[in-house]
């Protein structure tokens, strides 16, 4: 990918940082159920964090990307819960149904601290912790802070590299656009990279669902998340310290953080497994949920994470 293509790819990428002062919960997605699901709010670090918990088995905490919400995993909860896992998703502060104080709309350290505090309040000493896109750097920060809380790690269409100069300016532009035109203005920038063209044409409900989630973010969260992505630390040295079983999931058609980045992570995390998902873009966990679910279940069982 030359620099021009990289710029274009990143320009439409991965917004992950803003709660939902702008509206209630996302609409129910066709084909999902609510069986055995618990949800609520936790007062954490000055924020009100919305969570969903489903299942009673081994805990699995999944962290969404920018600027989405825990509903990104709406198609994963049932399958993973039925396979023996307690699936916990949260809306980062300022995203989805979560709210944040004006004094701390969000930072990498705050997002990681929030997630660990959710585990504490839900009485989860250890979990398989997964992060999609911006959720990856959050998972890396959690590992640096509290590696003893991990049973395993799942990295989904994410990256360990720091943002280069071009990407930094792209995120600053995203923040400016959200502040000028509102969170809804980011949806067109993102959807063309979140989903493949075939999915956008043939499954318009998928695009509408993700658009609704993007619109729920607050401006403050959009700005905070963009700053996190622009200024994220270099996590490549962290990869070599990861000692728990690690699964890397990657959409073959991801133009935000293409497969080359996932291959590099695999090479630097001892014993990690990379699964490439054909016909999926940046939101592979949602777009090709069945394939992603099966990959997670197979990996977890192979590593006795039950």
Automatic annotation (TrEMBL):
<dbReference type="InterPro" id="IPR029058">
    <property type="entry name" value="AB_hydrolase_fold"/>
</dbReference>
<dbReference type="InterPro" id="IPR050471">
    <property type="entry name" value="AB_hydrolase"/>
</dbReference>
<dbReference type="Pfam" id="PF00561">
    <property type="entry name" value="Abhydrolase_1"/>
</dbReference>
<keyword id="KW-0378">Hydrolase</keyword>
<keyword id="KW-0732">Signal</keyword>
<dbReference type="GO" id="GO:0016787">
    <property type="term" value="F:hydrolase activity"/>
</dbReference>
<dbReference type="InterPro" id="IPR000073">
    <property type="entry name" value="AB_hydrolase_1"/>
</dbReference>
<dbReference type="InterPro" id="IPR000639">
    <property type="entry name" value="Epox_hydrolase-like"/>
</dbReference>
<protein>
    <submittedName>
        <fullName>Alpha/beta fold hydrolase</fullName>
    </submittedName>
</protein>
<feature type="signal peptide">
    <location>
        <begin position="1"/>
        <end position="22"/>
    </location>
</feature>
<feature type="domain" description="AB hydrolase-1">
    <location>
        <begin position="59"/>
        <end position="289"/>
    </location>
</feature>
């Amino acid at each position: 990918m030359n620099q021009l293509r990289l710029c274009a790819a990143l320009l439409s990428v991965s917004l992950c940082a803003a709660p939902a002062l702008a509206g209630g919960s996302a609409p129910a997605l066709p084909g999902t159920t609510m069986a055995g699901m618990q949800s609520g709010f936790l007062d954490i670090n000055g924020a009100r964090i919305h969570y969903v918990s489903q299942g009673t088995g081994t805990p699995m905490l999944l962290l969404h990307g920018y600027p989405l919400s825990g509903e990104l995993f709406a198609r994963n909860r049932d399958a993973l819960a039925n396979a023996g896992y307690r699936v916990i998703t949260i809306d980062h502060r300022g995203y989805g149904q979560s709210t944040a104080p004006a004094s701390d709309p969000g930072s990498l350290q705050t997002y990681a601290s929030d997630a660990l505090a959710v585990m504490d309040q839900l009485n989860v000493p250890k979990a398989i912790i997964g992060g999609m896109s911006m959720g990856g750097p959050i998972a890396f920060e959690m590992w640096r802070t509290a590696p003893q809380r991990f049973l395993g790690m799942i990295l989904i269409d994410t990256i360990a590299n720091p943002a280069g100069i071009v990407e930094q300016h792209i995120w600053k532009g995203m923040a400016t656009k959200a502040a000028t035109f509102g969170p809804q203005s980011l949806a067109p920038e993102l959807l063309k990279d979140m989903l493949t063209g075939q999915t956008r044409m043939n499954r318009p409900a998928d695009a509408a669902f993700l658009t609704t989630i993007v619109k729920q973010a607050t401006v403050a969260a959009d700005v905070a998340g963009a700053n996190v992505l622009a200024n994220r630390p270099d996590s490549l040295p962290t990869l070599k310290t990861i000692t728990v079983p690690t699964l890397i999931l990657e959409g073959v058609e991801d133009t935000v953080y293409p497969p080359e980045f996932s291959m590099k992570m695999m090479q630097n995390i001892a014993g990690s497994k990379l699964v490439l998902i054909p016909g999926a873009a940046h939101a592979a966990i949602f777009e090709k949920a069945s394939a992603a679910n099966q990959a997670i279940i197979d990996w977890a069982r192979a590593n006795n994470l039950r």
